Amino acid sequence: MVTETSKKTALADRMKTVCCCQILGAVIFAIGLAVGIVIGLFVNHGQNRIFQSHNIVSMERQVSQCPTRNPIIHLDYESSIFAPLTIREMIQVAQILLKQSIILSLNEPTRLTQNFITSMYLHPPTKAIALAYLDNGGPSVGRYAKVHVQRGSASPPDIMEYKVGPLGDNKANITQLTKEGDIHFNSRPYEKVEITNLKNAIAKDMNILAPLIAESFDGAMYPRDLTAFFFNGAAGFRAEERDTRFVIGFWGFKNKVDLFHLLPLSGTIHSPGTDTSRWYTHMFYYLNQGPYRNASELMESYRHNKIRKIKLPDGYRDTTRDRIFPKRDERKPLRNFSHRPGSRSYEPDGARYTVAGSKIRWMGWEFDISAGQMRGVSLFDIRFKRERIIYELSSSETVVTYANDDSAQNGIIYTDASFGLLSGHPIMILRDVDCPQYATILNTTYWSSATQKPGQYQSICIFEADGQEPLWRHNDYSFAAGLRNRYLVVRVPTAVGNYDYIFEYHFYLDGKLYTTVSATGYIHTTFWDVQSPHMGSDKTKTPFGYRVSDYSMGAIHDHTFGFKVDMDVISMSNTFKVIKWRAGNILDAFRTQVNIQEQPPYFAYNQTRYIEWETLQQEREMQLSYDDQTFWIVVNDKEKNKWGVERGYQIAPLKTAAQTLTEAHPAMRALSFTKYHCAVTKRKEDEQHLTSTYDINRLENPKGHLDLMLDNESIIDQDLVTWVTVGFLHVPTSEDVPMTTKVATGFLLKPFNFFDNTASFDMPEYYESADHKDYTHEPEAEACHEAKYRKFCKYC
Hints:
Elements: H1 4-62, E1 72-74, H2 87-99, E2 115-123, H3 127-136, E3 144-151, E4 158-165, E5 173-176, E6 183-184, H4 192-208, H5 210-216, E7 226-229, E8 243-251, E9 257-270, E10 280-286, E11 289-292, H6 295-303, H7 320-324, E12 353-356, E13 359-362, E14 365-372, E15 376-384, E16 387-403, E17 413-415, H8 416-419, E18 440-448, E19 453-475, E20 479-496, E21 499-508, E22 513-521, E23 525-527, E24 541-542, E25 545-549, E26 552-567, E27 575-584, H9 586-590, E28 608-615, E29 620-622, E30 630-640, E31 646-653, E32 678-682, H10 706-709, E33 720-730, E34 740-752, E35 766-769, E36 775-776
Parallel strand pairs: 1-12
Antiparallel strand pairs: 2-3, 3-4, 4-5, 4-6, 7-8, 8-9, 9-10, 10-11, 12-13, 13-14, 14-15, 15-16, 16-17, 16-26, 18-19, 19-20, 20-21, 20-35, 21-22, 22-34, 23-26, 24-25, 25-26, 26-33, 27-28, 27-30, 29-32, 30-31, 31-34, 32-33, 35-36
């Protein structure tokens, strides 16, 4: 018999079972729902990915590679009167000199008693002949070469300069440009034959000093681990002298000395003439202690502990390359997103400039490119909208002067035109570093004094740049308008020793021309001697620079760049005017033009700004001053714009440095151009450059410097040359190791009443009215992929 209690228990059990089933069902439903959602999302995401991938593929199929347009019409340099010499022309010149017995062989020279060619480049035509040909259909002027020949076999030996041409003609002849003996043999620039003999001259001394070298410099041996550097400033104050200072340093890149790891061991080689048996070494220094008459005397003092010593730590010489080699430090992590490609520009519809021989044309600009291995690149016959503005714009000289407390390197002066501003390196253009991939590359030639053969390297790149900014803009209540700033770039990277220079010319749509030059590369240091008696209590710096590495001090120096700017504003009849920015009382302002006695009553107070004008009557030099600010203008008094104002161009140096050396410095006569920011002279055919390439080794009597040109000739309505000098000071710091990042200076040539209005309004611009009913824009490009690397160059 079932009791009441048993029935209640059974009912409770059934209710529990039902509840559990309901809960389980709810859980299963929830799980199923969640799984379904996840599956749905996954499927949907996959479909979206497939859809997106399909769209991307479709877009890639629809978007083609951007069209390319070869800007080079032809590269026949020999048909141009300004183009650089070609290899064929250089070979012809050498054969002519060989035939006339000016040189006796074209084999690699090995003795100083030989005659051989040291450099060769285009000898431009005289300006009068060139303009007759360009403007009036005159006869072809022909092409000529200027050649420098080192005549070691002459009695006495000397350097000669010749003009050879016309080239490509069986009637080519040779003209002497200098007299025999005029350029003393000892004032020549250094070259490979002499360097080889200089190394031979110190070989015996290095053997004598071998124990000192090994103990001081981490077991180093000469020449296995060390080499000598001989380019330590002027070789002589008089042309007849030649004393070459040398300093020892570790081997650097390839077969050159490491100028960052120079060591405190130096001497001097008395090295005049061609008889190397009479050369001798003297004035040895170790840690600036000396001079010792010879290596044996220095070694004797070292052995007997009569001088201070230095001992580099073990393994030091194995670490020198790591300090200066310009490769990413793999010990440091990459910056975020640096593995992704950076932003870049490209040509969406092909090049908008053309290259015909040496003639470049772009957006109303046209000019010829020329180049020579000593002075670098020149631009000739620069015109804008068919009117000539400049006959010649060229780099003329680059000077670097150092200061440091070092036995071999104090007072170093480099005139880079003596070494060659465009002498060639195996890789001249670093594509996608120096210039964008779409740039056009042109080549220049140089003559190798070491091999007596011509060489040719990629030297010049040309491209249209996008400034990614407005050239002009205005935003008003009723409209907005502007023009994007695009400009043509001619860029010339080059290397002279440890420094790299980048010369650039920018041509703008409004008629401006911007010339700039930058310096980069690695710094030239001296040995950091922390125990030097000249070292104060501060062991981080000296009067000559900061410590930048374990045993290296960055020597202070400056970079000065001189340019020739032969302005022809409409014609050769030009005048130079100085506009002076003034501040003063009202009557002073009015009296610059009219003599009035009373101040007009409507001026709120008796102070104002105003300008006054000065027309330069005679040749003059000028310097920039914050206390006396001026505008420098070249004008054509006979040519007026629509408003009756003489048409002209302004010369505006950008941020630059001033020469701080005084007239007492022995180099200031030879480098007189560095004293001025601008000088104006009457143009002469025999005043082609700011310096002579030989004056650095004959400082007592320089033959070709700017002060000689400034002889007070009249410059009113004359053919003028303006010599523009810019530069910067460099105090090397730790941020310059291993490489100095680019530092730039330059100057601007700017229209000054040259046009009737803004010169860029013949270009399609952006314009939009406030009500959006009126809208224009520049030509839009079709969507396309950036074109890959092009070979729009010859011999690339």
